Amino acid sequence: MIEVNAIGDACPIPVIKTKKAMAGITGPETVKVYVDNETAVSNVTKMAQSVGGKVSSQQEAEKKYVITIEMEGAPKEEQPEGAAPAGDTIVVVSSDRMGEGNDELGKVLIKSFIFAVTQLDQLPKTMIFYNGGATLTCEGADTLPDLRNLAEQGVEIMTCGTCLDYYHLKEKLAVGTVSNMYTIVETIAKAGRVIKP
């Protein structure tokens, strides 16, 4: 039996820990994952089912859930909804926050999103940052460690030069290269898939 303790871990860490624990499975195996919220239960359950796991869960105490995953063998390749088209995956980030509503929550979400990109089995070819997203590639941004990690693994990080000029940040770019709108449009046009948080 494999046990994964993800109590106290924020999204998407429980899913990432579980995927890593399941990666070495070659035959029948049981995985028990401990989490502290229903969102984590749902997220881990979806991921485990998508790779062929038979999943059950129960609440053992307040803020303590156990997810049991029965695997018959090695995890099959995860298939997100809809087949990915051929071609490179490009991530386009236009804001220093994710979604509409609370700005502080939005900033937490965009940081989590960029971290989650670092954990993908297949990394995007390019990440493009423009408008408010340009601030995420500059000195002082809490996203820099994850973006540098991605750059070290070969992901091209491009930031709009007009945006850096507008925000007076050109001298503060800390990861990747300065780009222009033509290159950005050309890169997006050639992409097999564009992800925009």
Describe the secondary structure blueprint for this structure.
Layout: E1 2-5, H1 13-22, E2 29-35, H2 38-50, E3 54-61, E4 64-71, E5 89-93, H3 103-118, E6 126-129, H4 144-152, E7 156-160, H5 161-166, E8 177-179, H6 181-190, E9 193-195
Parallel strand pairs: 1-2, 5-6, 5-9, 6-7, 7-8
Antiparallel strand pairs: 2-4, 3-4
Helix pairs in contact: 1-2, 3-4
Please explain how this structure is put together.
It contains six helices and nine strands, in the order E-H-E-H-E-E-E-H-E-H-E-H-E-H-E. It has helices at 13-22, 38-50, 103-118, 144-152, 161-166, 181-190, and strands at 2-5, 29-35, 54-61, 64-71, 89-93, 126-129, 156-160, 177-179, 193-195. The strands form two sheets. A five-stranded parallel sheet has the order 8-7-6-5-9. Helix content is 32%, strand content 24%. The protein is of the alpha/beta class and 197 residues long. The protein has two domains: 2-71, Translation Initiation Factor IF3 (2-Layer Sandwich), CATH 3.30.110.40; 89-195, 3-Layer(aba) Sandwich (Hypothetical Protein Ychn, Chain: A). The two termini are 36 Å apart.
Order of helices and strands: EHEHEEEHEHEHEHE
Helix content: 25-40%
CATH superfamily of the largest domain: DsrEFH-like
Percentage of β-strand residues: 15-25%
* Span of the ends, CA to CA: 36 Å
Spatial ordering of strands, largest sheet? 8-7-6-5-9
**Rg from C-alpha positions?**
19 Å
Show unreliable segments: 79-85
What is the total number of structural domains?
A: 2
